[in-house]
Amino acid sequence: MTDRRRFRAGSALAVLAALALAGGCTSESGGGSDDGAGGAPPVIAPGAPGEAAQTLSPEEAAEEAAREGEPTAADFAFMRMMIDHHEQALVMTDLAARHAADEAVLSLSERIAAEQGPEIEAMEAWLTRNAGAAADEGHGTHAPEEMPGMATEEQLAELAAARGAEFDALFLDLMIAHHEGALTMASDALAGAGDVTVQQMANDVIAAQSAEIGRMEELR
Description:
single chain, 220 residues, mainly alpha, Ferritin, 73% helix, disordered N terminus
């Protein structure tokens, strides 16, 4: 999924707020319609799938947009750690491209690489957009042991030295553990996320990597 698509959900309320403010300006200048009381028209905020839309005042829409778009400490921690987590997955998929014997294992590794490479770019773009807020939060780097599912240097060396069926078996073991760690991280992020983009990305990780765990279990 592209960064543009992820950002769309997070910016929806901000767009609504902007439209509301624009409507207020039109009303003041004598053009357009209003709510019948001389103020700006109400804003219709679409609900989540299966939920009804809400009618908000322009002020409520602006407040909601500001509240929904404010990153939390959990947001920054998730984005920074998941970049490192994904980068290790790409190290393993690069090894699979050279040493995997089973075509199904190779195909799966290619799919993982195709998903996680763009996700890294999207996470880096989010951190760039929120650089000022990140400085205010004062977050630093995270050690590998803080990220569940990360393979050790010894395990990566063993994987790099393996060949054929031995490689395939070890790759699946390590990548299943790696994906399970990502599910833990994404679930933790959702518990404390404030930014809609981060929530969407965490949900994407859970959906994609849960499905891939099931596929890898079948290949064992």
